[in-house]
Structure formats: C-alpha cells, structure tokens
Amino acid sequence: MEILGRLDDTLTLVSNYVIHPFVAMIRSENGFTLNRDEVARIIYVPLWVFLCANGEDRTHWIEYEGRSYRTTAYEHEDHLIWGATGRIMENFGKILMQNLSLHPGKK
Q1: What distance in Å separates the CA atoms of residue 31 and residue 20, rounded to the nearest whole number?
Q2: What letters, b where the CB count within 10 A reaches 16 and e where it falls short, cover 54-66?
C-alpha cells in the first residue's frame, strides 16, 4: 500500500470520535484482512459517484436509531453511503475536483 495523502479530520456525530482519514493506493487485495469489529462489509464504488457535478445536492434525511439526520449521502446500487463516511468522501471528491482539474470550467 502507498499512502497518497491525508484528508481533513471528520467528527462522528453519534459517538463523538475523530476520524483521521488517509488516501492510499492498494496494489493487491492479497493479505487484506477485514476487521469484523470495525467493518461489516467492503463495497466497491466507482470514484465518479463521489464527484458532485454542477453543485448537485447530496444531502438526504436519514433515519437512524429512531432519529432523523440531514447529512451528505451517496447512492450506489443498493448501498447508501452516509454519515462520517459520506462526509469523508465529500471532502475527497472536492479535493479531486479542485486539484485534478475535473471541475467544469476550471483551467
């Protein structure tokens, strides 16, 4: 694995933890072990799902443990990516759009 960089810290709203996300290039899935205490499953989502075009609104109302939250959320196939993960990916998408000249009209 090659660490490419660090994203902005993200606070979890329910548990009040601070997440320090990193972006890495994984060359092979061999030897990759899932920690079942931390992760329920791995899903593969194309990067374009997280790149907002033309100011597209990605906020949704989410019901979780009897409460409603308005948060960034992304839909892919039958998966809804939201909460801290959604906010981390929103930050990553914004960085890509700004720094890789993917933003329409940016030169």
Answers
A1: 23
A2: eeeebeeebeeee
State the 10-residue block means of pLDDT for the chain, 107 residues long.
92 87 85 81 87 69 84 89 90 84 52
73 alpha-carbon distance from chain centroid: 9
3-state secondary structure the chain: CEEEEECCCEECCCCCCEECCEEEECCCCCCCCCCCCCCCCCCCCCHHHHCCCCCCCCEEEEEECCEEEEEEEEEECCEEEEHHHHHHHHHHHHHHHHHCCCCCCCC
Which residues have CB under 8 Å from 101's CB, separation 6+? 107
pLDDT, position 55 = 55
Residue 105's identity, in one-letter code, is G
pTM of the model: 0.76
Asked if residues 10 and 91 have their Cβ atoms less than 8 Å apart, the reply is: yes
Beta pairing, strands 18-19 & 10-11: antiparallel
